[in-house]
Amino acid sequence: MLSICELPINIVIIDKPKMLIGLNQKGKCKKMFGNDREVRTLVDLMLENQASRTEALEDLDSLTTLTPDDVPEPPGGRSSPDSTNNTIASGTATSRKKASQTWPALVLPKKWPGNVTPTMSDDIRPAIGMVITEAEGEEGGSTGTAFAVSQSGHLLTCHHVIEGARSVTVRMEGSEGSEQARSARVLAASPECDIALLYLEDGLEVQNWQLIADGEEKVPTGQHIGLFSYPLGTELGLNASYSEGIINRPHQSDTARLYQIDVGAAAGSSGGPVFRLSDWTVIGVLRGGMEKLHGMLINFAVDIKEFRDLINGKQ
Asked: Is the separation of the CB atoms in 183 and 167 below 8 Å?
């Protein structure tokens, strides 16, 4: 969760899942991303703790600085980040009206569901989900794409898909009835790299997930890739669309490692998994693209290394 102010800010990083809070001179926030009610509750508690350890806060012209000592302990104690490459610590979240909620640690699977390696693209389709968000004060919602990365119900998508949302739901591919819309919580996010980790709040496991590349192997130019996503949201129906292409080149932006790719995508495709056709493992997350230029299709995917850095506390 991130709050952005017009004035300079100090950042406090709270154990995983990452929660970033920016305060202006009077401790007031201009714009909230994520669950603003929970952020306000946490800020109030932190300011109370700060007041108890300082004699006075009369100089409002100076930046209000909060330290890790001001961060209140969550129920059950504060969790510690796991140091392995494949886990993110479990945690607890609270709000004023909502009872405490917990989520299991993220453990990235090393085997496909049922230990059966996919042989065609449709074998991994059930791991895809349509993200539906609603923003505060806006009518209607917007859509994007996510995909399961653990049996416990963790999903990966783009930060801009859930940015500013007051509610996030996910409809997993092929789900029916009450399973069509499952509430999701944002556990961690990197606005700079445009990735976000979600968790299905009903606590029910998923039966299908995708394997994530270890990030050590170099992805060559010309690598054949596939993409599942929901271009144009529900306008094309409730089933994910599939497209293929190649890696055109690696690209380093100011904030993230990317791949330029030429798979077909449109609004609603953001957050979709970009995977190698050679072994079906995910190497990137579809971020967005540019309009066709003289017939050329230009899209970009976030390198999966950025996701691994996020869950390993390197961002």
From this structure: yes
pTM (two decimals): 0.68
Name residue 90's amino acid.
S
- Amino acid (one-letter) located at 41: T
Using only C-alpha atoms, the chain has a radius of gyration, in whole angstroms, of 20
Q: What is the dihedral of CA 313, 13, 202, 116, to 10 degrees?
A: -10
Q: What is the largest CA-CA distance in the chain?
A: 66
Sequence-ordered list of residues with C-beta below 8 angstroms from that of 52, at least 6 positions apart, any chain: none
- Judge whether 312 and 305 are in contact, CB under 8 Å: no
**DSSP helix/strand/coil, 176:** coil
Domains of the chain and CATH, by start: 2-70 (no CATH), 224-304 (2.40.10.10)
- For 209-246, the pLDDT digits (tens) are 999 999 888 899 999 999 999 998 878 778 899 999 99
